């Protein structure tokens, strides 16, 4: 089934941001959301795992560095449970209303981290994703990379842990994250219609422009220079809110969406 067939039932637009640790997903998701809102679009910003009260509780469990006994199978099921809740409670209703949904990570991360990284059956992970997604699929996915499949690992981890803290996944080791990054590149090769690879090694304004170009067909931006004022992309160099700000407060409020 094609991306268009999967999303044909929804009037809204669903875009996901993927990539290894420290790839820059949060910054650029927020910047795209800002631009869309300035154009009058109704935008919902989310993160995985999380985005709902239940999902945030599950996030705390799976990323807690003290949960060293958490087995790979449990890890997979926690991610899928959080996703199922997010799709049912937030994403599907938002798409039904015609909103734009931007999500920091989705099912591609599960394939990369749990299949390529942990070594779980890719077919089983795919089936689990299908079950949790409930027919919802991204219209477009931006895969941000901090280098090629191997170089991106150390660069990304240095970015992600520059404040001196590392969650359970970030502490999984270089070999694990190298497999994850190779997984992302393989996934992108298999689905070039949906997944667009954008390097985040370039200056932030250039990276932002490349991301906007990768979704221009979806939003009708025939020429970025006429759709956005001079100096618009330079704004992304200004420090943005931390990762916690990705989840809209309205999305977390019961019944808000």
Which keywords apply here?
globular, 11 helices, alpha/beta, 257 residues, 5-stranded parallel sheet
What features would you describe in this structure?
With 257 residues, this protein is α/β, with parallel strands linked by helices. The protein contains 11 helices and 5 strands; from the N terminus they run αβαβααβααβααβααα. The protein is globular and about 55 Å long. The protein starts with a helix and ends in a 5-residue tail after the last helix.
What's the short version?
By secondary structure, the chain is α/β, with parallel strands linked by helices. The protein has helices at residues 3-7, 25-38, 53-63, 72-96, 107-117, 122-133, 151-160, 174-190, 204-219, 224-227, 249-252, and strands spanning 13-18, 43-47, 100-104, 140-145, 195-199.
Alpha carbon gap, first and last residue: 28 Å
Strand content: 5-15%
Strand order of the largest sheet: 2-3-1-4-5
Class of secondary structure makeup:
alpha/beta
Number of helices: 11
Radius of gyration: 17 Å
How would you spell out the order of helices and strands? HEHEHHEHHEHHEHHH
Q: Would you report the number of β strands?
A: 5
Overall 3D form: globular
Output mean pLDDT: 87
**Any low-confidence stretches, pLDDT <50, length ≥5?**
241-246, 252-257
Characterize the biggest β-sheet: 5 strands, parallel
Question: Helicity, in percent?
Answer: 40-55%
Topology readout:
Elements (H helix, E strand, L loop, with lengths): L2 H5 L5 E6 L6 H14 L4 E5 L5 H11 L8 H25 L3 E5 L2 H11 L4 H12 L6 E6 L5 H10 L13 H17 L4 E5 L4 H16 L4 H4 L21 H4 L5
Parallel strand pairs: 1-3, 1-4, 2-3, 4-5
Helix pairs in contact: 3-4, 4-6, 5-6, 5-8
